[in-house]
Amino acid sequence: MALSREVKSDMTMRSGTRTMKRALVGATAVSLTTLLTACGGGDAAEPAADSATKATGPADDKVASLVPEDVKKDGKLVVAMEAQYPPFEFYDTDNKTIIGADAELAAAVASAMGLDLQIEDTAFDSVIPSLASKRYEVGMSGFTVTAERIKQVDFVTYYYEGDGALVKVGNPSKLAVDESLCGVKVAVLKGSTQDVRTVPELNEKCSAAGKPALAASVLPGSNDLALALQSGRVDAVLTDGSNAAYTAKQAEGKMEVAEGEPYNPAPFGIASQKDSGLAQAVQAALEKLIADGTYEQILTKWGMQAGAVESPEINEVAD
């Protein structure tokens, strides 16, 4: 979902210092029509409880000991995500089951904690506020970690990602995530990093070069982005590199990812309520999954291994 998709952003956040490779496309395929019309993005007031799974393995004693008692009490970990964002999270062809890297990692984290998993599909820009109000226990939806957001929630880094541009096949206008977008019609997700950080940054560069600003359309749901490009409403979509690559693969020759390095690579984080202690349990669970190979297996399945982290840090912000 975010694009590092995010409600608020630290506008002074600089590019990450790590060298990023664009994630490869996952092997699991769905048609573009199914991908773009699947159910998703539940209303913020009444999110849908879409996926519930039993713990898939034995709990890890160390991890389970770190889980706060108020999370343990009902035996489940409630994770909010906007299920419109492949390969991170999206609906399978049955339009009922949420699949993707985030969904599988969430299930593995919950199992390490000794908890069942409950995924709730909800509007992207409602997840962080809902964590603060204790509606959910974890938010996992491609959130970029920023200094501004750390004021609201705690994050555990689980991935690295940067912006990419989804364009028409052949990229006839030779677009990239740079000043070539000045004056160009682009689509971004409401509340995303692309919305609140990338577009303003590029507009500053366009202004300095004496060029017109980006003609940005801010859309309410992730599914709307590729549809806007497919219909000709926009000439480019700004989104996370992994999402751009996956969507292009499913488009069967109608779209492609513009060439170039990922723009503003940064850590993605699993969010939890501020100072609740749950971040420490999530961190321990990820450490276990990295050590036993589960983490790598999941990312590789979805073609996302290029963004893997070696160590899950709490409240890490890119330099």
Please give a structural write-up.
This protein is an alpha/beta fold and 319 residues long. It has two domains: 32-161 and 266-307, Periplasmic binding protein-like II (D-Maltodextrin-Binding Protein, domain 2, 3-Layer(aba) Sandwich); 163-263, Periplasmic binding protein-like II (D-Maltodextrin-Binding Protein, domain 2, 3-Layer(aba) Sandwich), CATH 3.40.190.10. The protein has eleven helices and 13 strands. The protein has helices spanning 32-37, 61-66, 69-72, 101-113, 127-132, 147-150, 193-208, 223-231, 241-250, 278-291, 294-301, and strands spanning 48-53, 76-81, 84-85, 89-91, 98-99, 116-121, 138-144, 153-168, 185-189, 215-219, 236-240, 255-257, 263-273. The strands form two sheets. Strands 1, 2, 6, 7, 8, 9, 10, 11, 12 and 13 form a ten-stranded mixed sheet that branches. Strands 3-4-5 form a three-stranded antiparallel sheet, with helices on one face. Helix 4 packs across helix 10 (278-291) and helix 4 (101-113) runs antiparallel to helix 11. The longest helix is centred in the middle third of the chain and has 16 residues, at 193-208. The two termini are 23 Å apart.
**What is the CATH topology descriptor of the largest domain?**
D-Maltodextrin-Binding Protein, domain 2
Main sheet summary: 10 strands, mixed
Structurally, the number of domains stands at 2
- Contiguous runs where pLDDT drops below 50 for at least 5 residues: 1-49
Helix content: 25-40%
CATH superfamily of the largest domain: Periplasmic binding protein-like II
Provide the CATH top-level class of the largest domain: Alpha Beta
Could you tell me the radius of gyration in angstroms?
18 Å
CATH architecture term of the largest domain: 3-Layer(aba) Sandwich
Principal-axis shape equals globular
- Helix-strand category: alpha/beta
Number of helices: 11
Distance between the termini: 23 Å
Strand content: 15-25%
The H/E string reads HEHHEEEEHEHEHEEHEHEHEEHH
What integer is the average pLDDT? 85
Tally of DSSP β-strands: 13
